[in-house]
Specification:
By secondary structure, the chain is α+β, with helices and mostly antiparallel strands. The protein is built from 5 helices and 12 strands. It has a 12-stranded mixed sheet with strand order 7-8-9-10-11-1-2-3-4-5-6-12, with helices on both faces. A hairpin with a 5-residue loop joins strand 4 and strand 5.
């Protein structure tokens, strides 16, 4: 099974290199454990693995698991592979490949901006955001993460109070998700209630292309939107998934979906 997944990854990497746009060359690869409260009513916590690729000019942050699904969808025999993976998951009682954080975040692309691609149901969206939009206050507290001395910084960002720990010994002004703007790599970040928590688990110097990922769902084209419009649509989707799906597909799922209730808080809360 491990050999099979390695072959899928290899095939998709080859497809990416020849079929998609190279926007920079990676110099540093960072891995973050991303944990978040997916159900505030039941206090259910989910985990993700985020990859941050840092190049000379551009960085890209995305979910390893979501990219794994996109990798399969990029292959010509994706239906066969997905069917096989679902059967394997059912027989072994393990998880089948499924998306977690759907956003792909490209910092300084275009220059001085962030490009974000994200998805709702059968449609993928694209919008621009501001780069280095957090207003950090650097504090005196210190701690060590992965043997790197780190310093605390705090900020208010889009409805949440955030604490970050950055390492000047890794001299790149970047971090997981949309975080950046500190004099060193952000190794850990969390909001006051720790509903969202990013924690670095690995750093690796490497040379690989950073690619702009295509969309493999719906019309296979990104729909342009704004950040605020996307957040409002995301809230609407989470409040009424059956209605959203019926609007797109004509399939009525009202009898099998839960009542209209927001079961978790969006990471960005300034859309309200």
């Amino acid at each position: 099974m491990k050999y099979y997944l390695c072959m899928v990854t290899l095939l998709f990497n080859l497809y990416n290199i020849y079929g998609q746009k190279i926007i920079d060359n990676m110099q540093l690869k960072c891995q973050y454990k991303f944990s978040y409260v997916s159900d505030t009513l039941a206090q259910k916590i989910q985990d993700d693995l985020l990859i941050l690729q840092i190049g000379a000019n551009v960085s890209k942050c995305y979910s390893y698991y979501s990219n794994q699904v996109d990798s399969i969808f990029a292959l010509p025999d994706r239906d066969v592979i997905l069917h096989r993976e679902i059967n394997r998951a059912l027989s072994t009682k393990t998880n089948y490949p499924h998306k977690r954080m759907k956003a792909y975040i490209y910092k300084n692309y275009p220059q001085g901006k962030i490009t974000v691609t994200d998805g709702l149901s059968l449609q993928d969206y694209i919008y621009e955001d501001d780069l280095n939009s957090q207003r950090w206050e650097i504090m005196d507290s210190m701690k060590v993460i992965l043997d790197y001395p780190c310093q605390m910084a705090v900020c208010q960002f889009r409805g949440r109070n955030w604490t970050a720990w950055f390492s000047p010994d890794v001299p790149v002004s970047d971090g997981p998700w949309k975080f950046s703007g500190l004099p060193g790599l952000i190794m850990e970040a969390y909001d006051n209630g720790k509903q969202y928590h990013f924690n670095v688990i690995g750093l690796e110097k490497t040379e690989e292309p950073i690619l702009f990922s295509e969309t493999y769902v719906g019309s296979k084209k990104f729909e342009k939107t704004s950040r605020m419009d996307f957040l409002k649509a995301q809230k609407k989707y989470l409040m009424d998934m059956s209605g959203f799906i019926e609007m797109e597909t004509g399939i009525d799922l009202s009898d099998v979906t839960p009542a209209k209730v927001m079961r978790y808080d969006l990471i960005e809360q300034d859309y309200k």
